[in-house]
Structures are given as structure tokens and as C-alpha cells.
Amino acid sequence: MPADALELIRRPGHELAAGLRSGEFSSVELIDAHLAAAERDNHGLHAWLTIESASARAEAAVADSRLANARREGAAGLTALPPLLGLPVALKDLVSVAGGQCTAGSRILAGYTAPYDAHITERLRATGAVILGKTNMDEFAMGSSTEHSAYGPTSNPWDLDRVPGGSSGGTAAAVAAFHAPFGIGTDTGGSIRQPAALCGIVGLKPTYGRVSRYGIVAFASSLDQIGPFARDSRDAAALLHSVAGRDERDSTSAPVPVPEALLALATSDDAAAGALRGKRLGLPREYFVAGMELGVEGRVREAVSALQAAGAIVEEVSLPHTEYGLATYYIVAPAEASANLARYDGIRYGAGRRDGDTLANELATRGEGFGAEVKRRIMLGTYALSAGYYDAYYLKAQKVRTLIKADFDRLWAQGFDALVAPTSPTVAFRFGARLADPVSMYLSDACTLPANMAGLPGISIPCGLSDGLPVGLQLIGAPWSEAELLGLARGYEGITASASWRSLEPTQLALAGDRGQPTPAERAASAATLAGAA
Questions:
Q1: Prior bond of 167 cis (ω within 30°)
Q2: CATH code of the domain covering residue 445
Q3: Do the beta carbons of residue 156 and residue 198 sit within 8 Å?
């Protein structure tokens, strides 16, 4: 790849947008640069399940035509252009794109072609964003490492022997590796924020109902929420602004206006940092969980000190029902997954057996099409919903969920602007390290899933490195406070703009394009062999 292309793909999205408007480069040139990076690195990262080069270049050509017309109209025409026009976006492979694959990381949807666009796909097309392709993910978004994809794992560009987090690990790795400045993921228990933390980028889970779920393959309907990945808060805000808003086809989509403040985050670091003064932040003691790595805790507490030095008021608070969050989540989410995944019977769409009677075909289809983790959660959920156990498990879990939400509501009533906490208790872990112990894998989301249980917005932003790997700082806000959260994130970026770790890139990215290196699947198999020998 030419040196100028390497420099180009490293620019944040808002700088790329300015370059397109000025005519410094075309959208076709920009898309070609990102496609080259994605195609080069996918051998070593396996971030992408499909790269749609032809359609991406066609969409870029349309964007260039719109840009040329706007330039002829002058400043007014350029100002009226959507922020994402001509810019590349990566989509997690559970977002419907008409005529394209939508596997949700599962063999049971192999060969399925989406007949319509998801709501967010429509929104992206309307803004002129260019969809590069579909990214890898844990099967049906069930996982915290992207090791549960039926199509093989994804590597973390900071260390190819480690996971990128999950379930949106493919998108997180693609954005971290400069394949796209923007990415879309889904967050059911932390599946945007946790991989963002492990890959050293920004990931935002909006308030439940902020973004329509129409056209998104469902995991747990009361928890799933679509959100943006980016390399800084301004880009995350622009992407959220583009996809958020009411959709009549989704009954859970809220009729809440999308704030224009998302497009007005401070451009200067000093102005952004100044906005932190007087902000009241809560530091929940329960989020510093047992087993948290010392380096992770150290970076988070350093970030908290930096916020205080910038004038924020940080007070230790308690969310007493947090300790029940993990158990509650793993009753509610599998129960909803059990109901949602009942539709995959091999008859209506996707892969299916056709050589026996109807019941035998359905059993064979589900037995062969679903992976082990999906089967585990279906069984857990079916048990929790079964006669004699519904009240003892699912109903009680919903009552505890109400208590978890009440803990947050109490802090908002006391005037806190946001909560600050770790995103993940550890840095990226090695392939296979937690596959044999599902509970240890589930603990990866201990700091993120309470926000899902309460339907709250949360964002993960980079706050340094531990043992050479990224650490994420999490901010959690009151409902519909995404603009305020992103303002706080932008403020933290402002006060750490000169930090040495800000200039670092993923350390093993150069190896990803080396065809002589093992693929992620080969690395994972090697890790499994070593574990078995031990």
C-alpha cells in the first residue's frame, strides 16, 4: 500500500470528511485505501466475513458525484452534506443488507440472503456512507471473545495470539486496524464496550430504544442495542447521530429526538477539557471486581485522577445490587434467546436438513447448525422458562433487574452527571484461555452488563496500556444522555491528548498481512493443543 494511503486511513473520520469536501482526495480513493488494508490484513486478523469491494466502489462513486455537485453550490452546499458521506463503515454480520449475507456468525444461517435493509442500513445509505462489508462475531452475539464464531476466531491486532473481545470483535478489530474509521456493533451485555476496551478504541452502547433493532438478528430482545465503534468520540457521535431515531417498525424504538449536540462536540482539546470542570462523577466500588488485573485497576484510577485534576468532582458511590447482575443477566438473556432462536428450524430460511421427516429434519438442523455456546444458552433459557421454574428463575430475575435499575436511578436523583468505572476487568486474554470454563468467560462482562439490565447508555474509551495491551475506561449515564457522555469522553481525550500512549498503534498489525504467519484459526488450534498437552 502506498505511503500516502497508509497515512490516509489513519486519519479520524471527521478529518476524512473535511478532506472529501475540500477535494483533497475522492471517496473512491479513500475506499480503495481502506479496502486494500482490509484485504491485506484479513489473513492474520479474520475480522471480515465478507468484503464487498465492487458495491463499496460503486457507492463511493455516487458519493463523489454528490460531493462534486455540492462544491459547485459553494459553502452552503458543502455544509448541507451528511457527516458520513463517502466514508467507509464496517457492519457486524447480523445487520440485514438487502441482497447480502447475514449469518450472525452461525452455520444455521449459511446461505441466507437478507431480502431487505435493516433500519440502520437505510439510515447509512441515506447519509451516503459506504458499507465495506460484514465483520466476524460470536455466534448470535453469544460470547465475549469472538471465539464462538462458526467461521473461526478473530485476532486482536495488538497481539495476534489474543482475542479482540466479543461478541462484536470483528468490527472492533477492523476499526482498530484502520480498515474503517466507523463500525457498527451490538451490545447485549457489553459486546460493544468490552471489545472496544480490548482493542483500544471507542465503543458506545446507546440507551435502549435509541436505535431501531429492525433488521437486526435478535439475541435477547429486551437487552440488545445497536451502537457505534470509532477511534475517537467525535466520530462515534457522528455515527450515532446517523443511525439513531424513531422507527415505526420497531415497537421498542423510542420517540425521543436525536440531539444535534452529537454533531457539536468540542473540536479543540482545551475546550473539551474545560467542559469537565464541575461535572459530578460517581465511582462505583462494586465495579472493581475480584480478579481485576492490577494494571487495569491502575490505569482506571489514573484516569479518574486525571478527571479530578481537570476539575471533575469524583465521589465513591455504591450500586449494591451489582453483585446480582451477572446471575440475573444469565437468566434473562438465555431465556429470551431460547424464544428468539426457536424460529431457526431449517424450513423457512437458512441451512436445513431435508432427508427425513419434519421433526427429524428440525432436530438435525438445530443440532448441526448451532454451536456449543448457543446450545448451552438455549438449554439454560428453556429450563428457566419451563413449567415450575418460571417464577423461581425468570420472574425473580426480572424483579432483581428492577432493583439494579433503581440503584442507578437513585444516583441520577442525587445529581450525578455520570458514573466512571472499568470496562473490562482484564486486558485481552489468549485464545482458549476461557473456553473450558464458561463462567470465567461470562465474568468478562461483569462491569458492562448492569447498564444493559437498566437500559442505560455506556461508553468505553481508551485510558492507557497494561502489559502493552489496551485498557478501557467506562462512562455510564442516565437515559438519553449519550451527548453528555460523549462530551465527557471528548473531555478525557482533551486532557490526555499529549499522553505517550495516544500515539501508539496496534503492535502486531504489521504481522497480520504476512501470509507466512498463522491464521487466527491456526493460532487458536495451537493454543488448544498446548492446553491439552499441559
A1: yes
A2: 3.90.1300.10
A3: yes
Is the residue at 338 inside a domain?
no
Q: Are 126 and 245 in contact (CB under 8 A)?
A: no
Is residue 98 domain-resident?
yes
pLDDT tens for the chain, 534 residues long, are 555 989 999 999 999 999 999 999 999 999 999 999 999 999 999 999 999 999 999 999 999 999 999 999 999 999 999 999 999 999 999 999 999 999 999 999 999 999 999 999 999 999 999 999 999 999 999 999 999 999 999 999 999 999 999 999 999 999 999 999 999 999 999 999 999 999 999 999 999 999 999 999 999 999 999 999 999 999 999 999 999 999 999 999 999 999 999 999 999 999 999 999 999 999 999 999 888 999 999 999 999 999 999 999 999 999 999 999 999 999 999 999 999 999 998 887 777 877 878 888 888 889 999 999 999 999 999 999 998 888 999 999 999 999 999 999 999 999 999 999 999 999 999 999 998 888 788 788 999 999 999 999 999 999 999 999 999 999 999 999 999 999 999 999 999 999 999 999 999 999 999 999 999 999 999 998 877 766
Q: Give the span between the Cα atoms of 498 and 134, in whole angstroms.
A: 34
Is residue 211, in this structure, part of any structural domain at all?
A: yes
Q: E strands of 136-235, at which residues?
A: 182-186, 202-205, 226-230
Flag whether 73 is in a domain: yes
Cα distance between residue 404 and residue 70, in whole Å: 50
**How many Å is the Cα radius of gyration of the chain?**
22
- The span from the CA of 193 to the CA of 460, in Å, is 5
Question: What span, in angstroms and rounded, lies between the C-alpha atoms of 442 and 184?
Answer: 22
Counting the structural domains of the chain, the total is 1
How big is the CA angle at 211 (ends 208 and 216), to the nearest 5 degrees?
100
Give φ, ψ of 241 to 5 degrees: -60, -35
Taking the whole predicted model, whether its pTM rises above 0.70 is answered as yes
Kindly give the residue spans of alpha helices, DSSP state H, lying in 395-519. Answer: 396-413, 438-442, 449-454, 482-495, 509-512
Q: Report the relative pairing of strands 418-422 and 280-284 from DSSP bridges.
A: parallel
Catalytic residue set: 92, 167, 191
Question: What is the residue range of 249's domain?
Answer: 31-265+274-324+400-530
- DSSP summary character for residue 521: H
